[in-house]
Structure formats: C-alpha cells, structure tokens
Amino acid sequence: MAETPEIITVRDLVKTYHLGEVDVPALRGVSLGIRKSDFLVITGRNGSGKSTLLHQLGLLDRPDSGELLLEGEDVTRMQEKKRTSLRLRYLGYIFQEFALAEELTALENVMLPAMMIESVRTCRKRALELLELVGLKGLDKHQPNQLSGGEQQKVAIARSLINDPVVLFADEPTANLDSVAAGEVMNLFTNLNTDHQRTVVMITHEQEETRVGNRLIRLADGVIVDE
Amino acid sequence: MSDERSVTDQPGISLIERKIPFYLISRHIMRGNKWTLSLVIFLMSVAFINLIFINSLFNGIVLAADQQVIATTSGNITLQTSPGQMFIPDAPEVVKKIESTPGVVAASARTLVPAGLLYKGIQGSFQIMAVDPSQERTTTIISRKMMSGAYLSDSDTDAIVIGRQIAGGKGVEMNATSFKGAHAGDKVLFTMNGQSRLLRIKGIFYTKYFEADRQAFISNRTLEAMQPSYAGEATTVIVKTQKKGDEGPIIARLKKTVPGGQFITWKEASGLMKSVTSSFLTINALLTSVGFIIAAVVIFIIIYVDISNKRRQIGIFRAIGIKSYLVGSTYILQSTIYSMVGVAIGSAIFFGIIIPYFKVHPFKIPLGDVSLYVDYVDYLWRAIVVIVVSILAGMLPAILATRKPILDEIAGR
Predict the structure, then answer these.
(1) Which residues of A touch B27 (CB under 8 A)?
(2) For labelling alongside B219, which of A200, A213, B85, B312 has CA 20 to 30 A away?
(3) Level-2 CATH architecture, domain A6-90+165-226
(4) CB–CB of A60 and B7 under 8 A?
(5) What is the DSSP letter of B75?
(6) What DSSP element (H or E) covers B292?
(7) How many C-beta atoms lie closer than 10 Å to residue A36's C-beta?
(8) Is A101 on the interface with B (CB under 8 A)?
(9) Are B94 and B123 part of one and the same domain?
(10) What would the pLDDT profile of B385-407 be if each residue is shown by its tens digit?
(11) ipTM higher than 0.95?
(12) Record: contact A103-B319, CB cut-off 8 A
C-alpha cells in the first residue's frame, strides 16, 4: 500500500535561544515527517528541545533556519496573519496548563475559535457535541474554576477540535493531572486517533505515555536520537 | 472541512469574526471580578469629576463676579461722561430716552459725590453716590440686600445707606478701614465742598461683593439740598438690559437715541474685576491642563495594569488562532466601555449630588456666593477627551501585547 503524503514536513530545523550573552541551542537540525493518522509521541529529558519542536510545529514560534512545510507549503517565513489563520483552521493546540479563558464557560471556551468562522448557533451546536465526545455532557455552563484539572484539559481538547484541525498538538497534556485524570485524557487521545483518525503529536515525560502512540521520537540536546 | 481548505488561502477580515471582541467583553463584564470592575469605574468617575469640578468652580466664580458687577456697580451698560465733561447734563431726560430703547429694562443716573464721612472720630473717604432711589430699585439689587435698616426713599433728605465694608464690625473683611461697627440709626457727618450735614444711617447693605459694599448712597434730594448746582446732572447712567450678552446691539441702538453718548459694556467697566476674572480663567486653563494629564495618566495606568494582568490570556487567544487585531480590539473596547461608564457615573454624581449640594452650600468669597456652573459645550468636550484618552490608553498596551511573541505572552516574559 502506498504511503499517504506527509501533512507536515520538517527539514533541518534549527533554533537557538539567546539568554543574555549566552546562546542556548534548543534544536540543532531536526528533520521529520508527519502523516495523516500518525500518533507521534515526542519524548526526552528536560531541555532536550521537545517543547521547542512542538512550538515550531504548532506555528507558535519561528526557527532560525530550516523549513517547515504544511501540506507541502513552506510556512516558516509566512506572514504572521497567515500563520494565525493556519493555527485557527489547520492546527489544534493543547497546552500543559489547560489555558482556558477564566471568564468563559466550558461551552464558550470551546466555541471561541469557531466563532471566528461561523455563526454562534452553529458553533454552539458543534461545541456541545464535542463536550459530549470528551465526556463533559452537562458541564457546558461551568466556568474553569468549577471544573477539575482533568475536566479543564478535556475542555481544552474539545476546543482544539472545534475547527476540525488537520493535526492536534499536545504539550505534556497530563503533566498537571492526577493519574486517574491523566489516564482519561490519554484514552481520549487514543480514541481520537484510532476511532476518528485524528493526527496527534504529543510530547510527554511519562514513560507509560510513550506507548500510546504509533510513532515515538526521542530528543536529546536538540537532535532526534531515536525513532 | 479540510478538503475545502488550502494552506495558501489568504486570510481576510470577515464580519462574522468582529463579534469576538463584543462577545469577550460581555463575558468579562458579566463574570469578571466585580470589585476590580467597580474600582476601575470608580477611579474613572473620580478622574472625570475632578476634571469637570475645577472647571465648573472657576466658571461659577467668573459668573458670580460678572453677575455682581452687573447687578451692583455697572449695570449691563454704563453711560459715561463725554471726554472733557464732568457731568452728563439733563440726566433725567437721558434716563427717559434710554429706558424707551428696546431691550432696556431700567436705567439709573448716579452722581459721584466728592465728599467725606466722619463717624465717631473716624474719618473715611468712600465712594458716595447720589441716586434717584426709585430708579436705583429697578436697576440694581442693592435695595434688596439690606442687612439692617431700610433703603433710601425719594423723599429722604438727611439719610444715607452704607455698605457693610464701610459700617465695619466683627468679622468684616475691611474692618480696619471702616467705621468699625456703625449701625442703622447712627449719625455720620457728611462733608462736601466745605459744607457739612449730619445724616442718619438709614440702612446697611450687604451684597457680598466687596467693591459694592465699599459704597454709600444718598438721595439726589440730599445732594441738591446741599449743592443745588448738581440738580439734573449725573456722572454715570447705569443701564439694565433684558439679558446678559445682548449689550452690543443695544449700545448700537442707544447711540442713536443718545447721540454722542459714551456707552461701554459691563466688561469694559469692570476694571479690577476684569483682571481678577482674567486671572481665574488663566488658572482654570492651567488646572484643566493638569487635570487632563492626571486623568490621562490615571486612566492609562488602570488600563495598562488590567491588560498586563491578561497577557497570558492574550497569548492563548492568539495561539488558538484569534487574530491579533480582534484581541487588541477587545481591550480597546474594554477601555472605551470603562471610560463611558465612568463618564456616565461621574456625570450622575456631579449633576445629581455635587451641583445641588453647592447650590445649597455655596462657596463664600468676597465676590459673592459661588456655586458650580457647567458650560455644557465644555463638559461635552471633556467627556469626549476622557473617552478618547481611555481609548488611546487601552490601544497602546493592547497593541504592544499583540505584537510580542506569543510564547513570551503566554509565559508572561
């Protein structure tokens, strides 16, 4: 069977942080490809460059050199306006610390990105479906401070799905959760990948979470050392 | 959905996305910290009240000064003697002509009397006017400001009314140069051109305007009884018009009625008061500028702190694809709403509490009782400026926040 084309192609990505007079290389020539329905887990020790790589893939930062292609199109030097539009329509991003707007309810948090594109009524319908999908039916009117950490992270996952993204990026999504909530969130990612053919790229510290994906990359000192 | 999308699609600005700032702000107002919101709006209101209070106070002072000058000393219009002349001849006829001029309510001929007063060994040289009491009653307010005794009548030939600053007494501002406690019914020795006459203090008036309260009045009959040559003459005629501000056209008409008459407006006649009010206007302009700067800085700090506390949220909104201009607009809209509500509440407090309070408890200054006076055009300008400053104050941090790298915003760097 022929391989599906790469959704994301990374070529020789380099990123160095400048902390005062000290240069800290975070990525030193990373190349990889991500195909539809991949569940790519990126792991590595603190400072290995995994978060930096995810920020690059999620278009939250720009590399010093190298190329990042999204569906074959180079997005590294693309205008910020276009990159914002791609983050809205193509990519879903789940942060480590939930990153919900405190003044919005669960439903409103999920709806927000879709409201850029569609009417409130359409967004509301889809957001309710997604809250049900992530197991939060009936909690739509709750504000983040009325939800547990696991529930907040599920709201963030529902939000990342609202515009039907091509790839989901998850930055250590269980780092602030207890083991039960972490297990639920991991199951949710697995279901999204297996049952809904979602492409997922996740970084994690946890050894057991490295087994949920169908691909595993290990980073050390800004380079891929193992796949 | 992804089948219809292309990475190369040009992101435009759609009408649909413009609801985002309104949506976020409505939630912020409904669910944000009520104490913080109340405090911000309270500070906005105070900044606005500060801006309109000072201005209204100075407007009130200037207005009070103008009204006192008109009502007690110069009328709206003053007819002076012609150059080289000591008197206006045939004053009763001139008054009649003036009173028949459209727009004129009343006129009173006054004669400045070069006389001295002696009371219990205190010799004083004050401004003494001989008047027709009936004309004076309809032209000035002095007859209605008697604090003791009564005003002159046309038949009085041995009476004088004096201002509070001449009578003197405890608590009187110019007591040192006064009779230090003269009362109605006391006698004063009136001396003019070597002739003396004992006059009864018929009344003491108190207009609260120091310049008017340094005057004394006798009737024309009293003057003519001592100096018959003064009969029918006057040194000024003061004219009361229907309303302040219509002096120009009335003077034009008066010049036709009284050819050669030297008419001047109360502004030209106000002399010392002119420089006092001009100083007040300068102080007002200075304090207004300072007030604007303080209001602008207060508003800027409030909004800047508020937005600075939301940097992480701004970063997250941008990270999930909300356009920067919409995020920025949210905070600009927020500062606009804060300022508009602040102006509305500030106005409600000002017009509902502060102005009525000072109407009942006016400031007491030597120009008269001063309450606050609002120039509505000026008020509107100040309200607009506060709102514009707020928008700018919201715009700057919002623009700065949306131009920073997303990751720096999220990390609060």
Answers:
(1) 101, 103-104, 108
(2) B85
(3) 3-Layer(aba) Sandwich (3.40)
(4) no
(5) B
(6) helix B272-308
(7) 14
(8) yes
(9) yes
(10) 888 888 888 888 888 878 888 88
(11) no
(12) no
